[in-house]
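go over this:
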Amino acid sequence: MRLKIILTLAIGVIIAVLIFVIIGPGNKRKQAKYLEYRIAEKNSKVLPRPDSMSKVMKEAENSLKKGDYALAKLKYQELVNNYPNSEKISIWQKTVDDINIKIILNGVMCDGFTIYEIQSGDSLSKIARQFNTTVDLIKKSNYLTSDQISRGRKLKIWTRKFSCFVDKSQNILLLKSKDEVIKSYVVSTGKDNSTPIGTFKIVTKIENPTWYKNNKAIPPSSPENILGTRWMGFDIDSYGIHGTTDPGSLGKQVTQGCVRMKNEDVEELYIFLPQGSEVTIVD
């Protein structure tokens, strides 16, 4: 029995010495982290290895600075998925949203893009109709400064269908492409639950719209024009998505029933959504 006790103590001393040698003398913080990790292993609990989050953050930030949007998105999404309780989660998610937009607008080749060679008789509007996209998006993703195109040139065309999902209870709008959420936006919806629910289609798109109130036309330049810089009307009369002259009202249920967005946000959304795009609104 005494021999067994002595052997047990000796083994414990050897393990302690090994930990001390491996980790290094005088570094109690590292020793504590190492012991915590080994204890968690014994209890079948998974702990992130020390400094792994900061390492991924550095890789994400460096990739973004270099303009490597595909890798940056992968790293920021890794942070969102693996560290959901971090105080930085909202910043990471917003960064993923912004990267998604950059990838599409900058024509970064990925699964959503196809290459199209311009044929004789083509125009940007014809190509946009063919692929159910917008002229604006084709121009942006191919760095075109005019509508003039030449036969034989190859264009990057986004082929995945865009749609919107609006949650009235949260006052958020999600831009989706196929099943992927591309970006979320803060919006305002109708007071007294006046925004209709259901799935609608965008049938009209107008830049700098005129607002008609009490049979009076209010021009887009007027501060009284509440529609802001863009209008996307639904296939239900008098309802749609538009900008605002009152960004302070966003995030609230204050409109006459339309979905209201910040001007720069609705201008961005306008680029992606062709006529016929579906907008689903839920309570």
